Amino acid sequence: MFAGTILLAWVLMLQFDTTSVQLPEFTDPPIAYGHLSDEKTDPYLVRGKLPEKGADVRAARRWPDVRSCLIRSERKAERPDLRKMDWGKMRREEDIEVCLFRIAASLRSPEAMRDWFVSQGMQRVRVSVLAKTPNVYTEDMWVVQAINYFSTGKTFRASVIPWRYWIMFISRSEDFGAAFSKDGTVSGTVYFDNNIL
Predict the structure, then answer these.
(1) How far apart are CA 147 and CA 85, in angstroms?
(2) What is the CA radius of gyration of the chain?
(3) What is the pTM of this model?
């Protein structure tokens, strides 16, 4: 009886769930890109180095190229629209970071990445210069940052419904970033939720 009630509540919550991101209708042309990145052309990097953590290595294998990060209709397209990321498959921080890396490596410019974040409906998107930092970045970097405030009622990270609402309750926002060297090479991406704990 109790299990049936829980299951019924879960099904009802699924019907009224509006927090996962729905891609907007894109009416303007896709953002231009030079190539479609993959692990061979643009190996996934964490702070400019190959990943060492097991979760990062597994995510890089799970998302081997930029096409794998896109919605099904774009994966086989001759010129896929990189704005159509499959947010519903992004369950872990590492998933988002690898797919952001794949998209940034395809776009190859901070300005194009800024336009990509704006196309996703994120707020406070900005490009800034990050000064050379010993043991982290060996040169000045362009950093593109974007924020999704939870006051919008949407979250980009997919998770089971009760957990998703809990994340939105304890968090202020989701933060996204991509770091580019002066030649357009991506040295890393980041995702985290800005929580109050």
Answers:
(1) 17
(2) 18
(3) 0.81
pLDDT in tens, 140-183: 889 999 988 765 555 555 554 555 555 555 556 788 999 999 88
Nearest to 193 by CA among 105, 111, 96, 86: 96
Q: Where do the domains of the chain lie?
A: 38-195
18 has pLDDT over 50: no
SS3 state of residue 27: coil
* Measured distance CA(109)–CA(142) in Å, rounded: 9
Please give the DSSP secondary-structure letter assigned to residue 136: T
Helix (H, G, I), strand (E, B) or coil at 106: helix
Dig out the tokens for 125 from the structure. Answer: 């998107």
The answer to whether 35 and 176 are in contact (CB under 8 A) is no
